[in-house]
Amino acid sequence: MITRRNRLMATLRGEQVDRPAVSFYEIGGYKCDPDDPNKYNIYNADSWRPLIQLAEEKTDVIRCVWPQSDNSEEFSHFFKVETWEEKNSCFTKTTLTVSDRQMTSLTRRDAEINTVWTLEHLLKSVDDLKAYLRVPQRAFECKWNCCHLPSVEQELSDRGIVMIDIADPLCLAAELFSMGDFTIIAMTESELFLQLLGRFAATIYPNIQKIAEGYPGRLWRIYGAEYACEPYLPPRLFEEYVVRYTGPIVKMIQRDGGYARIHCHGRIKNVLPHIAGMGVDGLDPVEPPLQGDTELCEVHKEYGEKMVLFGNLEIADIENLTPSKFEQKVVQSLREGTDDKGRGFVLMPSASPYGRTITANTMTNYETMVRLAENWA
């Protein structure tokens, strides 16, 4: 009998499998601990326990592993990070001082919701960007390691595989700004923005290469490409901001037998040729309209032989559709994603619930994903 680990690896290689793999993405992708009493751990709510158990016991687990990083000593000369709590929220303030210019960012994490809200972005103008670029490159130098990866794999055993999770230069750059400021600066100040991307590339490339060499043959997820999709930026800038800087990452991963999966929400129709042109091994979450702008069957027909497709169920449908209507969505995804001519397909939602309560309807819909995938020839 094929193991869940073997099923996923065969899917990545484009080999025939007994059935399509099924993943709950963050549930099982993150190590959710229902016994951790921390008040910011939403997974210790009673309604989460059956869903976590279902993910660990029945899905083809793709466990996220994040490289651990140590900042350079000079980082603290420019950046000051403060964290404090108020009631049921945790705040983090970052202050950057360059010469006589000071910039701040502020985030908030609430105990009841598994997300971080950015209340204030670090860079708010072109002058802020110019000041940021005056920080010496050595202040951003850091050393990554994945020493914990073997122990994660050992704990998983044959239940699944690890996935090394990293942000691309575009993601690191875009998140310094509000969405409005990012889109304007990326479109009108391309020379400055390319300098910013180059700075992040110089920082992360050596680390990616080291980890790819040290842990060959693993799946990687690279996120950030969606910042260069419509309606935020025109497709011509996808070539400049994603292909130019993420393409080399794909090659580094593949050089040592790894598999590069691009994460890209939203409207991908007009940038799919660029994504495929990078030679990626996988793409997620291939969102249907209205969240996206192309159907899974269209992506599969045009690019399914080249890359494994992960998707294409929306978290809103899992939480809101009746079980009978959601079952129709799952059948459609399985039918469109598992054509014999495709490299492979993993049934997967676009995200996961981020509140403390898992309703009976939501639980039933997750069970439907497993049931239909297990019985799909």
What's a concise summary of this model?
The protein has 377 residues and is α/β, with parallel strands linked by helices. It has helices at 4-13, 26-29, 49-58, 75-78, 126-133, 149-156, 169-174, 179-188, 190-214, 235-255, 272-277, 296-303, 315-320, 323-337, 360-374; strands at 21-22, 61-65, 68-71, 79-86, 89-98, 101-110, 116-120, 142-145, 160-167, 219-223, 259-263, 282-284, 308-313, 345-349. The strands form 3 sheets. The chain has an 8-stranded parallel β-sheet. Strands 4-5-6-7 form a 4-stranded antiparallel β-sheet. A two-stranded antiparallel ribbon has the order 3-8.
Q: What attributes characterize this protein structure?
A:
377 residues; alpha/beta; 2 domains; 15 helices; globular
